[in-house]
Amino acid sequence: MPENRVLMLLEAGDWGEDQKRIEGLKEWKQYPQLLEAYRTLNQEALYKSRVHGSGHIHRVLLFAALIGWQEGLGEEDLRQYFQMASYHDVGRTFDGFDIYHGARSALRLEALTGQTGERLKEMQAAVSAHSRPDRDMETLVRSYEPLDLDHALEMTRLLKDADNLDRVRLGDLKVRFLRHDSARDLAEFARRLFRLDQEMKKRLLR
C-alpha cells in the first residue's frame, strides 16, 4: 500500500510559511473528518499512476478540506466532498486527455461510498462533470435530475477546484479558471505542497 505522504506531513511535517494555515486547519472542528477520509480511503480502488494515482488523491483531499473549511461546509457536505475527491479518478484507464473518465468513475461511487438517494445523484453528477468543460457542467448535472440543482452544481464546482489545484504537478494550473476565492487563495500553497510531497517521496526512497 502506498504511503500517504500528505498525512505524514500533517502529522509531523514542517510547513514553513504555511504552518499557520495548517495549524488553523487542525483546530477546525471538522478536521477529524479529513483524517477519517484518509483512514477509510480504499487505496486498492484508486487508479495506479504517478499522475492520477494515490499521491494526486491525497493532495486533492487536503485541498478539499482547506476549501471546505473556508466555505463553511457542514458535516454531510464535507463527507460528500471527501468521497468525491477520493474516487473521482477511479474510472481512468490511461493518464492522457479523457473527458469520459468522470462518467466511468461515477458508475463506481455507490459501491465505493455506500451513498444512496440524492447524495449519490449529486456525487455522480459532480464526478461525471469534473472531467468535462465548464460549459457542459449544467447540462450534465441536470441529466442526473437532482432535486436541488443549485446544491449539485456547487458541489461540482467545489470538486473541480480541488482537483484543478493539483494541476501544479503538470505545470499548468490556471488560477483564473478556479471558481472560488478560497481555491484561488490556495494556488501558491498547492505549489509548495507538491514540492513538500516530492521531497518526502525522495526521503522515503533513500
Written overview of the protein:
- The protein is mainly alpha-helical and 206 residues long.
- 63% of the residues lie in helices and 0% in strands.
- It is built from 12 helices and no strands.
- It is globular and about 50 Å long.
- The protein starts with a helix and ends with a helix.
- The mean pLDDT is 96.
Task: Show the helix and strand layout.
Layout: H1 5-12, H2 19-27, H3 31-40, H4 54-71, H5 75-87, H6 101-106, H7 109-113, H8 117-129, H9 137-143, H10 149-165, H11 181-184, H12 187-205
What are the main properties of this structure?
206 residues, mainly alpha, 12 helices, globular
- pLDDT < 50 runs, ≥5 residues: none
Radius of gyration: 16 Å
Summed over residues and divided by their number, the pLDDT gives a mean of: 96
For this entry, what is the oligomeric state of its chains?
single chain
Give a short summary of the structure:
By secondary structure, this protein is mostly helical. It has helices spanning 5-12, 19-27, 31-40, 54-71, 75-87, 101-106, 109-113, 117-129, 137-143, 149-165, 181-184, 187-205.
